[in-house]
Amino acid sequence: MMKFLPLLFATFKRHKLRTLLTVLSIVVAFVLFGYLAAIRKAFEMGVSVAGQDRLVVRHKVSLIQLLPASYEAEIEKIDGVEDATHATWFGGIYQEPRNFFGQMAVKPEEFLKMYPEFVLPPEQLEAWTKTKTGAIVGRTTANRFNFQVGQKIPLQATIWRPKDGGSTWTFDLVGIYEAASKETDTSNFFFRSDYLQENNVWGEGQVGWYYIRVADPSRAEEVARKVDERFANSPAETKTETEGAFVKAFAEQMGNIGAIIRAILTAVFFTILLVAGNTMAQSVRERVSELGVMKAIGFTDAQVLFFVLAESLLIALVGGGIGLTVAWFAIAAGDPTSGALPVFFFPPADVIAGILFAFALGLLTGLIPGVQAMRLNTVEALRRE
Amino acid sequence: MIMRWFSQVFALLDFNIRSLPKRKGAAIAAMFGIAGVVAVLVGVLSIGQGFRRVMMVTGSPDTALVLRSGADSEMTSILGRDEARIVADAPGIARADGKPLVSPELFVIVDLAKRSTGTDANVALRGVEPPAFSVRGDVRVVEGRPFAWGRNEVIVGRGAHAEFRGLDIGSELSFGQNRWKVVGIFEAEGGLPESEIWTDAAVLAPAYRRGSSYQTLVVKLASAGTFQQFKDALTADPRLNVKVVRETDYYAEQSRMITLLITGLGGIISALMAVGAIFGALNTMYTAVASRAREIATLEALGFGSSPVIVSVLIESMLLGLAGGILGALGAWAAFDGYRAATLNWQSFSQVTFAFDVNPPLLMAGIASALAIGFIGGLLPAIRAARLPVAIALRQA
Questions:
Q1: For residue B390, what are the contacts with CB-CB under 8 A and spacing of at least 6?
Q2: Taking the model in full, what pTM does it have?
Q3: What pLDDT is recorded for position B172?
Q4: Chain B residue with minimal CA distance to A99?
């Protein structure tokens, strides 16, 4: 094994520049791969994590139309509904519009029960239930603005004007919630719906939408139909669907732009790999006569194959490894759109996929010329120029 | 002297180009690499250009929007009938037949299914009054007829009709307990209204329980220059609590997010691809130079200078870049120009339909970047070619 190493390095050194350029183009391909993964995630907006047993009930005409707060008790009476709670979009501005993050008015305990993926320390939940102006925020946004528990957070109202005549709502930050898994979006800000209800100029009794937990996920469609039937022909008809369908439809609203960018990136990624792979295979083909010499002086077929494979694997893994690392740091450093994407990170599952791609690249580019080299008739190889 | 330099360059160039068929594979690979970069660059940027064009066409500098102060879009604005009357009396407004050109408008969002995916999308439903058609002079019905005032009828924008289901003339829409009949399709010179549905504000208001309120006032100014006078009069009026924005500024702000998204992503993708293409071009040109080391050395031994060698290699590489650039630009133009898409405009929370726009400046930018890639990819190999020690090169097999 060890005796191979100097030989391996000798092959790299022969065309130093070519080796370098090949590695660099693989690096570029994998940096692109990283961005591809991050962009896909951003456009999906958490579809993958939507709860199977949760339904979303909204106004049939549009999400922006409000529903009566009285629906909660009605929904809970429907067979198959385990629990229901509501949320209302606030849409306030923190300092300036570019600092966007989602803000929703909810009932603290009911909401956290509906969303066990948001983990809030018990003492912070207790503080929240005791503070009417209390609010909690997710880790991502807390880190983004360096929010600390105990701090006051002023938000400019765009939809909900406060009763006192101004346009600023001030919240007391009582907690910072963490994600139960890395997939969970922790960018949102939640505050108490009773505060919103009592302190806005439009009056009480209107909420944004409802969440339902169904007792049996396989009956989700049936429950959704029952809810809509219950409110049919009322002034506020509803549209109920699973949370997954709701989030997906919302993501579809971004439209084909995401799909087009992904298609382009995928094409680019594979093109670069194809070109780099071809160069790597080429460099093996050029050395057929040397491989013949190796066989003539006693290397076995398996050793020759191993030698060729080791070379291509090393190039692919070094290039891929550097590329993925660069992508990891570049993506962590910030999103290239200055905040137009809701989340932007390199999902760990895709890092692993990237490593597998690099491995496959090395294997594929080495295998064909490697097997050819292995099968090579020694005399034939030596006779070639 | 200069003549001789040029004749050397041309002799070398001729020689290089005639030897190209021998290096077909590498040359074609490099050319396609560059073509790919240019196609992607032009393609991605054309999305942003198309979106921007919709917004630019919509905004006009002599038109102002009046919103409630604190509102960040039409969606979150609300104005009473009294306020609308006060605004109409302000100075600086254009008049037709003695009446001020002020269009009070309602703006609500309805769910319609996208033709492409069948999923619901937010579509803007705008309620207007007669002045809307003189204030926004560019709206005209191209199929069917305009809606009748006072009836539950709508006209739909050309883009909305193409993108969403159920908007054909004669079909009925039902939002809540109200039914609306589609009677016409309108165009607005490619502007934002083409993504919307329009109806009579007087019919829309009771259907959405808006009472006697509006969301925005669109005001035609006497000239672009009277904007400040108009704005000052409104902000100084103690009876009003409004914000006044020039329409061009409003739509520039509305397109900010999408523009950031496209230019940010497009920029980073194109930059990475350009780096990849430079590596490809470098590889090609190094191989080209290496395979001709002996010929180059022979020429230098014959008295050719080293600068003509550098220039000839550079020109060759830039020619490859140019060919790739033209190929990529034309490919992008064929594939993307006019391609229709729709996306959610976050600020107004409604769909904007638009067409990708591959325009001449974009094509020029694409070809220019191809030339730059060719130049960078050729520079180092060219220098290497020129510095090759003649004796060693001649000895090479």
A1: B297, B300, B301
A2: 0.79
A3: 93
A4: B257
